[in-house]
Structure prediction request, 369 residues.
Amino acid sequence: MFSGLPWVGSWQCQNLFVVTLEHILENKPMSLGRSLSPLGPLTARHAAKGLGGCLGGRMLPCGSLKENGARLVRSAAARHGLGGASQFSGFSSSAEAREERRYHWVTVEAEELIAKSYARHVQINALDAEKSFPPSLALNTDQLEKIGETNFHYPPKSLSDKVAFRTMKMLEKLMEAFFREKYNHHAVTLETVAAVPGIVASAFRHLRSLRTMKRDHQWIPFLQEEAENERMHLLIWMQHTKPTKIERAFVVFAQSSYVLAYGAAYALSPRTAHRMVGYLEEAAFDAYTHFLGAIDKGDIKNVPAMPIAKNYYRLPDDATLRDVVLMVRADEAMHRDFNHQLADQIQDGLVDHHPITMEEDLANYGKAK
Prediction:
């Protein structure tokens, strides 16, 4: 549609795409302003087709913008029930869409389980303490164990990825050397650090939104929710173990250093900062897997779960410490993959797009199959 309008340059098309896509996909007629007034009102399918031609044509030679446009249309089309990108001209085929699954480093089966874990988590937070979540969101022990079968590693690709990976491996070795096989004490200290990135990143996003006078597209609540979840992990473990004075001193040093370092990293490169968190959560996932191993071997007693854990996760009255560790490890898996995806999203130029969740990714994948 736009291919016959040479006066529609790349910046007009990109602005049109970002501002109007969600609206026009709701099948609402929309005036596009004086500069495009000859076009008249657009319906969803005509507009999507036109955007496809624009983003896929010669007017936008930048390959990354073309790919990002395709991802955004597939994402929005899935949310509004308009089918996969194959319906729209100028976009990738269904085979290409499957290759562009956002959480590509995780198997589809694992992504489905982690997405279910996250949906359950969101539902729990939305309900009163007395209510239970729907049975369809219940995760049994076998499913939680399956989530832990593989710690999906995001292979570092760029220089910033390698810097993030090596930094986290160094910190992981430092923690392992300090705590060794005291996995319960390790968990307490780990959560005091793991709760930092979400709140620091949300503060940066908040200030960015104020500074640029633009919407944040829901990054802030996602990041704050992550920080709150990690803080709840800390409160849970504090009921199971008490850190020593040396460990408390280590926490003060580690947290202070990490706040400064992560804040500087986010100011310089948000992509690298989120990648660091992804690798930090990979380390946390491994730590909880070792924790489970110690419980299974009898090195740590499988005591009854404390009230705070049972209330937070809606666990049965006979729940044990092992059940809690399984739940916490599932949380770390969703934080791991979500932060890796945020780093990819920033790399793809989607910093002003709603964070793409696993549920949305699976919906797009299902539409493309």
Summary: The chain has two domains: 2-99, 108-368. The chain is about 65% helix and 0% strand.
